[in-house]
């Protein structure tokens, strides 16, 4: 088991070195750098200290305190990944106050031997030295921290997933993040429950609980490092009406006044003519603000027309034009020598996976099935 922890620690530091070479680095990259550093160091400390946990209560308590960092790092990473904030906000440091308070408490308590006798997470002296009330509070806070932050991170993920579809026509795939949050949220919560059962009913052993938590962390290190290293920028800010202010994607939809029925129809007709004549969907990086600027209409009016008149979000609206363009080119003899991927790239898609997924979702068949079903020309 110890070797697994050392491997995980090495992986965390290895991904950290790779991430340091990534250019350009955004806010979530810097958060991930500090997160991987914490994960690598914490896992290595645990691997070295495993054999001394029962003999050194303060070491084991300090390791348990490290669990107060995992949730905040996850939440801050997801928040940074799913927003266009460029700078770390000072108020976000408040998420680390419980960890610092726990460590400070342990350092102060260690100066009073009689009081410190009760500070241990095993039950060797249970009944002789009852754990101090404040220590129990910190243990409860640690147990609740992980599940609470997993829920907060999942809420951020769900909130922004819909905003992406309203904002960008690119196939920005954050499914890995949602699955990672859900799976590890469940696993982590179950392990915390086991640790609580151990502490209350004396079932299992302390090492069994901590091994399980650090084993899940080890797997998490590998996955978050791999996907985090690959993650590209989610949002790109485009000026719409006030160039000096970045676009707030969460306020695009119906930001101010709404169009009445007559205004909706006029804007609808204008958009349709522009889409057919200029084919802006051929730009794989087309966004709602960018299209609104080209049309010289407010972004919230464009969003309202797409939602109410077309019954779609921006992502599906643009990609329907791309799918129709692909179908037209497949039928066109001029593109007979083109591969399906070549036609897709010529039609505004930016990857094979995005093309296949969107085409099937919007057309009901795969691109190759559609092509094979055409009558021979």
Characterise this structure.
It is a single chain. The chain is 67% helix and 0% strand. The protein is built from 15 helices and no strands. The chain folds into 2 domains: 229 residues; 124 residues, Arc Repressor Mutant, subunit A (Orthogonal Bundle). The termini are far apart. The longest helix has 35 residues. This is Helix-turn-helix domain-containing protein.
The ordered string of helix (H) and strand (E) elements is HHHHHHHHHHHHHHH
The class by helix and strand makeup works out as mainly alpha
Mean pLDDT: 78
General shape: elongated
Count of the separate structural domains:
2
Number of strands: 0
Helical residue percent?
55-70%
Rg over CA atoms, rounded to whole Å, is 27 Å
Distance between the termini: 64 Å
Low-confidence runs of at least 5 consecutive residues: 233-256
> How many alpha or pi helices?
15
Largest sheet: none
Q: Which strand-content bin applies to the residues?
A: under 5%
């Amino acid at each position: 088991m110890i070797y697994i922890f050392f491997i995980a620690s090495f992986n965390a530091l290895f991904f950290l070195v790779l991430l340091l070479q990534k250019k350009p680095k955004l806010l979530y990259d810097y958060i991930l750098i500090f997160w991987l550093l914490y994960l690598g160091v914490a896992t290595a400390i645990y691997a070295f200290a495993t054999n001394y946990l029962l003999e050194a209560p303060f070491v084991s308590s300090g390791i348990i305190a490290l669990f107060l960092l995992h949730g905040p790092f996850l939440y801050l990473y997801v928040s940074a990944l799913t927003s266009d904030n460029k700078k770390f906000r000072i108020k976000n440091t408040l998420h680390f106050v419980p960890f610092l308070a726990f460590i400070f408490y342990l350092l102060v308590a260690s100066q009073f031997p009689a009081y410190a006798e009760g500070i241990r997470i095993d039950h060797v002296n249970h009944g002789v030295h009852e754990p101090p009330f404040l220590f129990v509070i910190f243990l409860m806070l640690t147990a609740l921290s992980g599940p609470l932050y997993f829920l907060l991170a999942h809420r951020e993920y769900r909130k922004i997933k819909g905003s992406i579809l309203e904002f960008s026509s690119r196939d920005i795939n954050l499914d890995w993040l949602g699955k990672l949050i859900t799976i590890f949220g469940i696993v982590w919560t179950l392990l915390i429950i086991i640790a609580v059962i151990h502490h209350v009913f004396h079932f299992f052993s302390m090492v069994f609980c901590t091994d399980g938590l650090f084993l899940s962390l080890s797997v998490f290190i590998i996955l978050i490092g791999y996907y985090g290293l690959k993650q590209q920028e989610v949002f790109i800010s485009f000026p719409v009406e006030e160039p000096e202010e970045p676009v707030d994607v969460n306020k695009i939809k119906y930001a101010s006044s709404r169009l009445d029925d007559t205004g909706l129809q006029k804007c609808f007709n204008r958009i349709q003519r522009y889409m057919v004549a200029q084919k802006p969907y051929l730009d794989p990086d087309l966004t709602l603000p960018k299209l609104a600027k080209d049309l010289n209409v407010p972004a919230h009016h464009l969003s309202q027309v797409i939602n109410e008149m077309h019954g779609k979000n921006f992502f599906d609206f643009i990609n329907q034009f791309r799918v129709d363009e692909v179908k037209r080119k497949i039928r066109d003899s001029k593109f007979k020598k083109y591969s399906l991927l070549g036609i897709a790239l010529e039609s505004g898609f930016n990857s094979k996976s995005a093309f296949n997924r969107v085409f099937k979702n919007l057309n009901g068949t795969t691109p190759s099935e559609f092509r094979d079903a055409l009558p021979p020309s």
